[in-house]
Specification:
This protein has about 30 residues and is mainly α. It contains one helix and no strands. The chain has one helix at about 5-25. The longest helix is centred in the middle third of the chain and has 18 residues, at about 5-25. The protein is rod-shaped and about 35 Å long.
Length: about 30
């Protein structure tokens, strides 16, 4: 696994959260 910088980890986490929000049956 390639060494991940804090920025990449944060970006990946934000992307995952965004996907979860998009998969929700309701929208804000």
């Amino acid at each position: 696994m390639v060494h991940a910088t804090p920025y990449k980890i944060t970006a990946y986490a934000n992307l995952a959260v965004r996907k979860i929000h998009l998969s929700l049956p309701f929208k804000p």
